[in-house]
Amino acid sequence: MISLFELLKIGIGPSSSHTVGPMIAALRFVKELQEKHRPTTVAELRVDLFGSLALTGIGHRTDRAVIAGLCGEHPRTVAPEALDKLFEEVERSKSLSWLGQYPLPFHLASDLVFHRDEFLPEHPNGLRCTACDGDGKTLVTSTYFSVGGGFVVDEHQLAAKGDHNSGAPQLPYPFASADELLGICEARGLSIADVVYANELTYQPAEAIAGQLDEIWGVMRSCIDAGCVHAGILPGGLNIPRRAPGIFQRLKTTPNIDAQGCLVDPMQRMDWVTLYALAVNEENAAGGRVVTAPTNGAAGVIPAVLAYYVDFMAAKTAAAQRQSIHTFLMTASAIGMLYKRNASLSAAEMGCQGEVGVACSMAAGGLASVMGGTPAQIENAAEIGMEHNLGLTCDPVAGLVQVPCIERNAMGAIKAINAARLAVLFGDGKHRVSLDKVIETMRQTGIDMQSKYKETSLGGLALNVVNC
């Protein structure tokens, strides 16, 4: 079991597995290095990137993330513009101050190496950090794996099935499957959000939980707002123009009520949902501040669906609205925990079904909860959200989180809303395919999917759309 704030966390774009994860791994390495050796004995640092991290690392800013991590930066607190500044300074000076305190020579060509033809057997997203003394003797070498959603494990933790939470306190309501979660809700008379909240109280007090949930939603909303006004061309070379500002201006200035008080376009609310998702993922693609929910590539789905609820469905009193937002996020996180435990959030393992598919499933469950759905209806909504994303590939053009990723978030958000409405308004919680079965099917599909469709940019759109 993990904390909901491990699943929903503030980070930086454009990728949780290729930007956030490598930054955390590099930072973890230099902190461990400082603890184990006198800094004066360290004369050389080297980072080797393997598999998907190497193949799409440049487009995902993995190189800049690693440098920032070595320099002591964390994705939650680093200023987005700092990544380029630190990288350019290292490139210019051919030196690096690890943890921001200990300078040593660092040559990008030889000390940050992309092994594009080599995958480590344990996981597609591998990186190895090495520190040597003045005689070239290895002081420490550690291998880390960015396993999706910004989660990082070392080789020993991965061998122990990623048990990075060993020694955690006993939770009142542990669950390993949707069936177990529904059983707890039925036996105890609890909602899914109640179960998550009770477990979270084991980690921290109520005030801290509420404050962090407020912060998570605040960053999501700020990301939407920023994406609606930041115009221009997205970085990376594809020359993709930001569309959200133009859509925002058009929606803002187009009345949707005629003189008789009737809706001009009943579908305009869906246009707002599309706008919210595009705004977030354009910010992510530009390297901005986002919430990993549960990944960066899928960061627009949950904010878009939650903003749809807040803007068009929620109670108007501030207190009731705040509680609904908390319920939505806690319920969505319970769904995400099941995917994290029983499959994967990594597109390098699962394809985009593990990112946008999971986010769609989480958002559907979250929306169903605030629509008044029972635990069974929420589980049904989450199942529908994934069932119709099964087999979704990850084939980013030019290795950038732009095409088809940005639009795919908008489509995922619309699917989530439809799934929640189908489950709550027209369903009773009884259905043929369970959430547990669809999660297992996603896992099996990801295993069967060819590597070229799993965040390598070696197949699909990435191969057929010429980057010129």
Structural class label: alpha+beta
Cα radius of gyration in angstroms: 22 Å
Continuous helix count: 20
Alpha-carbon distance between the two ends: 46 Å
Shape: globular
User: In percent terms, what proportion of residues is strand?
Assistant: 5-15%
Q: What sequence of helices (H) and strands (E) makes up the elements?
A: HEHEHHHEEHEEEEHHHHHHEHHHHHHHH
Which blocks of ≥5 consecutive residues have pLDDT under 50? none
Strand order of the largest sheet: 5-2-6-7-8
> What number is the mean pLDDT?
95
The profile of the biggest β sheet is: 5 strands, mixed
The total beta strand count reads 9
Q: What level of helicity do the residues show?
A: 40-55%
Structural commentary:
- This protein has 468 residues and is α+β, with helices and mostly antiparallel strands.
- It is built from 20 helices and 9 strands.
- It has helices at 4-7, 16-36, 52-55, 62-70, 82-93, 108-111, 155-159, 178-188, 192-200, 206-227, 244-253, 268-285, 301-312, 318-342, 347-350, 356-370, 375-387, 405-425, 435-448, 461-464, and strands at 9-12, 44-51, 95-98, 102-105, 112-115, 125-132, 138-146, 152-154, 289-292.
- Strands 5-2-6-7-8 form a 5-stranded mixed β-sheet. The protein has a two-stranded antiparallel sheet with strand order 1-9.
